[in-house]
Amino acid sequence: MSELLQVNGLTKQFGGQPVLRNITFRLSEGEVLAVLGRSGCGKTTLLKILAGLEAPDAGTLELHGQNLLPVPPNERQMVYLYQEPLLFPHLSVFENVAFGLRIRKIPKAEADEQVRALLAELDLAEHAQKAPHQLSGGQRQRVSFGRALIIRPRLLLLDEPFGNLDAQTRADMQQLFLRVSRQHQITSLFVTHDSREALTVGTHFAYLDQGLLTSFPSVREFIQDPRTSIAAELTFWESIQRTAYQPDYEN
């Protein structure tokens, strides 16, 4: 796989308070880097700098060898997905997904065919003519995901995109993300505070704490690092499972 994104020495302060400290990592095409971190650790700031919505104090960003810092957000060929889908309320599901193709002047017949195919892939075909307010939270997030995918971004930035969904819908969206990411070979940076979500969606893993990013060469090392608390959580659930299936000899 060819290297897509290179981040070197990225630093950012707000009001003299360090938020990101010398962030350095690489991301190859088709990879999903899952960045785990607690609230306030700098995850959103990192994504905003990559998207061009914040400027770093120091460091370099390169996408396919191109210096990104002078490139405006709308020319970086990235899409930033939030917890809130941020759909156009006056447009149907179909036209929300088609929006990126419309503004790129893709011929209508060609654009409509692409949208129909993607809506079917996202299990949204029967909702194509609905307005966003007629959809469930999970359906709205799928529409947002579709609107991002349709323009084939070079990099997808996901800021806890499933954080507002209930547990089952969140699990369904994680599996959908996995399936579509693999099928389309999407390169993504996915930030989350949920360790299980990180393990589910990631192909590579990192931990962000107090502005410092640690990348892990293997999933095993990610799990065993005490800062992630994953090993302790697994031990806890294993003990609960053993207790639940232990014979009750007193009765």
TrEMBL record:
Record's keyword terms, sorted: ATP-binding, Cell membrane, Ion transport, Iron, Iron transport, Membrane, Nucleotide-binding, Transport
Keyword Transmembrane helix: no
Annotated ranges, domain ABC transporter: 5-235
Transmembrane segments: none
A Pfam family this chain is assigned to: ABC_tran
PROSITE patterns the record matches: ABC_TRANSPORTER_1 (PS00211), ABC_TRANSPORTER_2 (PS50893)
Top-level division of the source organism's lineage: Bacteria
UniProt-listed InterPro entries: AAA+_ATPase (IPR003593), ABC_SmlMolc_Importer (IPR050093), ABC_transporter-like_ATP-bd (IPR003439), ABC_transporter-like_CS (IPR017871), ABC_transpr_FbpC (IPR015853), P-loop_NTPase (IPR027417)
Name of this protein: ABC transporter domain-containing protein
Source organism (scientific name): Hymenobacter fastidiosus
